UniProtKB/TrEMBL annotation:
<dbReference type="Pfam" id="PF01979">
    <property type="entry name" value="Amidohydro_1"/>
</dbReference>
<protein>
    <submittedName>
        <fullName>N-acetylglucosamine-6-phosphate deacetylase</fullName>
    </submittedName>
</protein>
<keyword id="KW-0378">Hydrolase</keyword>
<dbReference type="InterPro" id="IPR032466">
    <property type="entry name" value="Metal_Hydrolase"/>
</dbReference>
<dbReference type="GO" id="GO:0008448">
    <property type="term" value="F:N-acetylglucosamine-6-phosphate deacetylase activity"/>
</dbReference>
<feature type="domain" description="Amidohydrolase-related">
    <location>
        <begin position="14"/>
        <end position="64"/>
    </location>
</feature>
<dbReference type="InterPro" id="IPR006680">
    <property type="entry name" value="Amidohydro-rel"/>
</dbReference>
<dbReference type="GO" id="GO:0006046">
    <property type="term" value="P:N-acetylglucosamine catabolic process"/>
</dbReference>
<dbReference type="InterPro" id="IPR011059">
    <property type="entry name" value="Metal-dep_hydrolase_composite"/>
</dbReference>
Length: 77
């Protein structure tokens, strides 16, 4: 998914905030999960990916727990 966000921003010139919604909020809505997924908000599942300035994965959280094996060498996409 990080590759999709990166390509959407770089190749299609989509603003980063919209590319992130395309990878999170919109799919959650389509899947009927908009009340628990797709946003960073109280009561939502804390599945997060931290990207650096080059839009590479730096860390991953699943259910609010940081994954120890998700490093820059991990393939997350």
């Amino acid at each position: 998914m990080a590759t999709a966000v990166r390509n959407t921003v770089r190749l299609l010139a989509v603003p980063l905030d919209e590319a992130l919604r395309m990878a999170s909020t919109y799919p959650a809505t389509v899947l009927g999960l908009e009340r628990s997924h797709g946003r960073i908000a109280a009561g939502y599942r804390a599945d997060l990916v931290a990207l650096d300035d080059a839009l590479r994965v730096r860390s991953v959280w699943c259910g609010g727990i940081r994954e120890r094996h998700a490093t820059t060498q991990s393939r997350i996409d």
